[in-house]
């Protein structure tokens, strides 16, 4: 990497203004947009790709992991998109597979109905700052650089990109060596009802047994009822927010995917063709902000509850080996709270961070990173932004009681909630 720097000074046209600007259209971003819009705020969502849904659609991570609850906007999504999977109680776990193509279509329509202005193919470039307050963002669009002004900005990039550019300290990976969880390219295979022609490109790997596989195990789902197999068996070491790491991972994960598909055809799935490979590798972990509270392993294992709870989960500690080795650290949990303060950066105003890049340790984020929890965090962020605007106070000074009342009005039900003193 070059040590040279350039200074760029440009006059950037303002393309649009809103009360709430959300950067990133994954689970956190879509839920934040809906909750902010329902609270009466003009809401803009900027998405770098051509589709909403984050890793669920872009990376084919098309299964919702069980988190011990189905509540709020996530419950609404399930009731409309996967009604057969909807549990009778808010406090049950479900693990439904879904079509990433159908979810993409559903989210397009859902946000349009909610009155959210979604701008596709718009990628974050820089924060617009007034002193220590974020007042908008500059983005790269199909028409060039454009600015978007907002009273509150919500960073749902998954990589804390807005936070970093606004001066928020971040950390990545394990404390001792900075290694993050590896990346995975999930793919689909389809049962054709008859043996298929096997093909293995010459630069791929011939896996002959389970120990040879990148994860050292079989991990796939076949619950769609239509012969579809969703395969999660590749593993590439690296940090998905690093240029060289992600470049390598895109090539190596595809090589592994083709190799795993060939292995499955030669072993227990001879009738399955490789039917879908997503356009990008799946990223589990990159950057965590340093927030006003940092979620820890002890919080998870002790089942800690917080007065400013915004999400609850019992999803396990789930650490894919950061070295790229075959083992996975999996530890069951009874359930814990995630506090609002984890979404609030230190020393920067006008910014909320939602999704996997909240303030959490490497171990803690391995549990809170899944899609259902990110929907919950996003919903809370959108509501908090709206309350801050309505009350004309910083996002860090909103009333927890008001936050919980507004979330309850949007269908969120907490269990074992600690009452504010």
From TrEMBL:
Keywords: 4Fe-4S, Iron, Iron-sulfur, Metal-binding, Oxidoreductase. It comes from the Bacteria. InterPro entries: FAD/NAD-bd_sf (IPR036188), HdrA-like (IPR039650). GO terms for molecular function: 4 iron, 4 sulfur cluster binding; metal ion binding; oxidoreductase activity. This is Succinate dehydrogenase/fumarate reductase flavoprotein subunit. It comes from Paenibacillus endophyticus.
